[in-house]
Amino acid sequence: MNVGYGTDNGLITCWEVGRINRIKSPELAARAMNGELPVLPWKGGVEKKLKKEKYGSLYYLAQWQGLRNEDLDIDTSEERRITCIKTGMTVIYTGDASKYVEP
């Protein structure tokens, strides 16, 4: 995953944006804190449950962690599954962009 950022590949920047958005949008932060996966600029948020599994970006995961006021905790070599409390949809966050980029 290299999008022209430093050695963190932009994850710290995404996390910081989440922390800023926590202040700007307390309602959005509260939804994330409650376990929702709201739609954000990166792939990984959900509006409704889909019939097939969904993949999301580690950039989304970083921004979501910042929004929740969590420490940045991402192992780029592993995928992480999170189920949205609102929709029941499970999203698999991965560094493999081919899994979430539409052809």
Please give the structural blueprint.
Layout: H1 11-24, H2 26-33, E1 54-57, H3 58-67, E2 80-83, E3 90-94
Question: Could you give a quick summary of the protein structure above?
Answer:
This protein has 103 residues and is α+β, with helices and mostly antiparallel strands. It has helices at residues 11-24, 26-33, 58-67, and strands at 54-57, 80-83, 90-94.
Task: Summarize the structure in words.
- This protein is an alpha+beta fold and 103 residues long.
- It has one domain (11-99).
- It has three helices and three strands.
- The chain has helices at residues 11-24, 26-33, 58-67, and strands spanning 54-57, 80-83, 90-94.
- A hairpin with a 6-residue loop joins strand 2 (80-83) and strand 3.
- Helix 1 packs parallel to helix 3.
- It starts with 10 loop residues before the first helix and ends in a 9-residue tail after the last strand.
Kindly report how far apart the N and C termini lie: 18 Å
Radius of gyration, CA atoms, in whole angstroms: 13 Å
Q: Flag low-confidence runs.
A: none
Q: Strand pairing plus helix content: what structural class?
A: alpha+beta
**Helix segment count?**
3
Strand content: 5-15%
Question: How many domains?
Answer: 1
Fraction of residues in helix: 25-40%
Q: Number of DSSP strands?
A: 3
Shape category: globular
The main pleated sheet reads as: 3 strands, mixed
Order of helices and strands: HHEHEE
Overall pLDDT level: 91
Strand order of the largest sheet: 1-3-2
